[in-house]
Description:
By secondary structure, the protein is mainly alpha-helical. The protein has one domain. The chain is elongated and about 50 Å long.
Amino acid sequence: xxxxxxxxxYLTAAVPLFAILAAVEWFKGSxxxxxxxxxxxxxLIAAGIFNYVAxxxxxxxxxxxxxxxxxxxxxxxxxxx
Length: 81
């Protein structure tokens, strides 16, 4: 799996997580620039951890049901290489 796959996966995790964290700040009533910046930083950190763990499992060929589904979908997309 190439870099494009991992970047897309990172953004797929980071963007919704930021939206959720920003919405929580908004519902709490604290909508300062620092609150949204904090939500963005936490979203980036959490998505990075999520992506790193998935990448590590992929590189070490560890058994993971979700990883196997992703790997199979990637192979199917590439034409079964």
